């Protein structure tokens, strides 16, 4: 049975959420959820995931729970950044009575996220208690275990962390690990793939060939029907090295495809 994860990116569009230190909550929640979803795709199987907004759209509060309820999500995770001059991390479940599954999801999120944050500094639970309860509409109106995370304060010294993309990535990945643990999702080995490109003559052919040789990349040449040379380059996983190859091909406007290996 495929598990369904709903990621709610707090705020967006006409509502930027909290602002401070040159940061907007809506941008940070977008970044964290994108990192979470990317990490899910790279590391787990047996799930589907959706988010309340792809980019910077305005999504009314009342629509967010409906999107998750109508889809039949198994868990709902709403990502926010705190404000009000405090410091630290905390998370919320509905204060009107929740089941053990909801509390378990909150606990695994708190554990994973605080551990990830502490790689960057001495980050504590806000007010000494990470697990909190309140009457937020996305928590009250959703039909599945729902947790809202408040990932540090945008208007305090916490902003030094929120300005660091490596920190946002770590926090996003921690959200994903928690979701996967809670749902018992199987880990998948990282996908391998090859770049397939070529079909050029003259300068294009020479430039691709010298790039591959210069980087010391393994490749297999082959001849197309017209006699043009093609290259199968790899194997790769999604790493800085594969991003470098893809960047080279894109920047120069060379045709290519990624093929599963
Ligand atoms: Zn918020």
UniProtKB/TrEMBL annotation:
Which domain of life does the UniProt lineage start with?
A: Bacteria
Please list every transmembrane segment annotated in the UniProt record, as residue ranges: none
A GO molecular-function descriptor? N-acetylmuramoyl-L-alanine amidase activity
Q: Which Gene3D superfamilies match?
A: Zn-dependent exopeptidases (3.40.630.40)
What's a Pfam family this protein contains? Answer: Amidase_3
Q: Name one GO biological process term.
A: peptidoglycan catabolic process
Sequence ranges assigned to domain MurNAc-LAA in this UniProt record: 65-180
Annotated Gene Ontology cellular components are:
outer membrane-bounded periplasmic space
Q: State the CDD domains in the record.
A: MurNAc-LAA
Is Hydrolase tagged as a keyword?
yes
SUPFAM superfamilies tied to this protein: Zn-dependent exopeptidases (SSF53187)
Q: What is this protein called?
A: N-acetylmuramoyl-L-alanine amidase
| Record organism | Ectobacillus ponti
> Which lineage is the organism of this entry classified under, starting from the top rank?
Bacteria, Bacillati, Bacillota, Bacilli, Bacillales
